[in-house]
Write a structure and sequence with these properties.
It contains 5 helices and no strands. By secondary structure, the protein is mostly helical.
């Protein structure tokens, strides 16, 4: 296999991985958005129950905590894909494109990947223990099951890690494109 066909294979894999990660993040973001509907419904039930009937629910707070938490973490990958994650570009935005890409790659390697991979690992361990015990919330009056939320947290961190890897591949592709333009 010659060098050009090997590069095309890698570029094809990179593009396919980016498309896969983007699709997973899109679906995750869509699920997060749809979770806001039951969240609003639960809030409305609590508001009416408390203010109209003077009889607050015992379950609304815990339910909102669980649904809202799931919606928030499921949106992480989509937020990264959409560029909605918080970035501190005050310094790096003034740098040349190539230097900016290299800085981003270093930060992804030193900060992002260790934190998301380690966080995913710990969340998965925690979720396995939680499922095995059928863990419930210790707050609130109805002891809501917390183990499904821990599964969602684990999946969400995996999706965020995949999206971060897609971002890294895009940075490498931008550097390669800049190098090719510089050679011409």
């Amino acid at each position: 296999m010659d060098k050009s066909s090997a590069q095309n294979t890698h570029a094809g894999f990179g593009d396919r991985f980016i498309a896969f990660a983007n699709k997973v993040s899109d679906v995750s973001g869509l699920v997060a958005a749809y979770l806001l509907v039951p969240l609003v419904v639960v809030f409305l039930i609590e508001i009416v129950s408390r203010n109209v009937f003077n009889h607050p629910t015992t379950w609304a707070s815990g339910t909102c905590f669980l649904i809202g938490g799931c919606a928030a973490v499921l949106g992480f990958g989509y937020a990264m894909k959409s560029g909605a994650m918080v970035r501190i570009d005050a310094l790096s935005s003034k740098l040349p494109e190539k230097v900016h890409c290299i800085l981003d790659l270093i930060l992804y390697a030193v900060l992002f990947l260790p934190l998301t991979i380690g966080g995913s690992y710990e969340c998965i361990k925690n979720a396995v223990v939680s499922v095995s015990k059928l863990e419930t919330l210790s707050t609130g009056s109805w002891n809501a099951p917390i183990w499904p939320t821990k599964i969602v947290m684990s999946i969400s961190l995996i999706i965020l890690t995949l999206q971060g890897l897609a971002e890294i591949i895009q940075l490498v592709q931008r550097l390669r494109a800049a190098k090719r333009e510089g050679e011409q």
